Amino acid sequence: MSITIGINGFGPVGKSALFAALADPSFTVTAVVDASVCAAYIAYVIEQEYPRRNPAGTPIRVTDTRKDQIVLNDTQVIYVSAAQDPQLSLWKQYGARYVLECTGLYTTRSRSWGHVTGGAAGVFIAAASADINTVMASSALERLSASLPVCAAGTPIGAAVAPVLDALAKVMEVERVNYTALYGTQPQHPIGAKSEDSRDWRQARLQSYANCAMASSRDNGAETVCALLPHLAGHVSAGAFQVPVLQGCAIDLVVYTKEAMSADVVASAFAHSMVDSESTASVCIANRPMISVDCIGNSRVMLDVASSSSSTDGKVHRMVLWVDVECYYAAVLLSLVKQVHAIHTPPGP
Fold first, then answer.
1. What distances in angstroms separate CA 183 from CA 1, 158, 219, 248, one per listed residue?
2. Which candidate, 240, 334, 331, 333, places its Cα nearest to that of 284?
3. Which residues are in the Glyceraldehyde 3-phosphate dehydrogenase NAD(P) binding domain (predicted)?
4. What is the largest CA-CA distance in the chain?
5. Domain that holds residue 112
6. Which of 86, 109, 111, 110 is nearest to 99 (CA)?
7. Shared domain check, 79 and 40
8. 76 and 181 fall within a common domain
9. Nearest to 319, CA basis, from 306, 331, 330, 335
10. Cα separation of 184 and 198, whole Å?
11. I want to staple 114 with a disulfide (CB 3.0 to 4.6 A). Which of 87, 92, 233, 347 is the partner?
12. What is the separation of C-alpha 81 from the centre of its chain, rounded to a whole number of angstroms?
């Protein structure tokens, strides 16, 4: 049986999570909850954007749209609710076993507990949290189990950097880390998406690309990296800037190691660690120079080997990472759901 999930919040992360789940036969989305969008707008976005996000996937057709539900391919029903309080989200009634909390509002245990009250067996916060364990795919099973029924995936940038550092730490002693992330402007929640007038919907989607100014951002992910990799606490320095690109994120990562290593050794060690670690699904190596458009639609962090280098003493290593933040982060959330579901589901005979 597929894993049933509900999505709270239909912003950029919630939308990407919906598309990723629709493309993965392991999942069935049963409900989307957001007070600022209507069912007709969600159906419109699925029809317009899903085919471009998943051109090789199974076609998805919206065959019926009502005030409180969308029907896909005549069989799958997605309930749509405007409930603003998690306690009013009837996840059990909707058949959602797990909830992706994508609003950025309910990021503490007490504020997100309403999802559990509403019937969710597990809640995955798509943000950093002040009092909930931050976990990733390679987190120890004990840490993941101890976090349930609510866990956090951290910020998207931190969630992208941490698996790379985790893999490197398995084969070398990392003393210090510096990185700078450049990523596209994060859109505000769409205005007009609640309207029943379809003429407002195009403007709601265009809002994503309205801001073309470069600006510094506090969302550099350093706290998430340190939460996921405690041995690096106090040794991570990070910066982030929003730049006028539609999608794609470049991360200029500099790693300082205790022992000298050549660039070739670092690259081979990194590749070896990827094979042996649980990060395999989240990181891959690209052997050609890349630009932001090359990573769009890819759910993995891409290490640009052609743009990476090492210092003459072999103790400073610069790596360039490319990632489609929304696509990658949605994959991270679904990967965590699968792991938790495996914990909840006893193995068969």
1. 37, 13, 11, 6
2. 331
3. 3-151
4. 65
5. 3-127
6. 86
7. yes
8. no
9. 306
10. 27
11. 87
12. 23
Tell me the three state secondary structure of residue 101: strand
Q: Which strands form 122-125's sheet, in the order they lie side by side?
A: 62-65, 69-72, 76-81, 27-33, 3-8, 98-101, 122-125, 150-152
> Do residues 186 and 72 share a domain?
no
Q: Which residue is listed with tokens 């007009």? A: 192
- The CATH number for 214's domain is 3.30.360.10
Q: Which amino acid appears at position 151 of this protein? A: C
Residue 146 lies in a domain: no
Residues 189 and 116 in one domain: no
Task: Please give the tally of structural domains in the chain.
Answer: 2
34 annotated ligand binder: yes
Q: Count the Cβ atoms, other than its own, within 10 Å of residue 34.
A: 26
What value does the mean pLDDT of the chain take?
Answer: 85
HSE-CB for 50 with a 13 A CA cutoff: 22
CATH, residue 12: 3.40.50.720
Instruction: Looking at the structure, tell me whether residues 193 and 319 fall in a common domain.
Output: yes
Helix, strand or coil, per DSSP, at residue 322 = strand
DSSP 249-287: EEEEEEEEESS---HHHHHHHHHHHHHHSGGGGTEEEE-
Residue 100 lies inside a defined structural domain of this protein? yes
DSSP state of 316: E
Q: Is residue 344 part of a domain?
A: no
The parts of the chain modelled with pLDDT lower than 70 are 140, 185-213, 245-247, 268-281, 346-349
Instruction: Examine the domain organization and report whether 206 and 314 are in the same domain.
Output: yes
3-state secondary structure of 343: helix
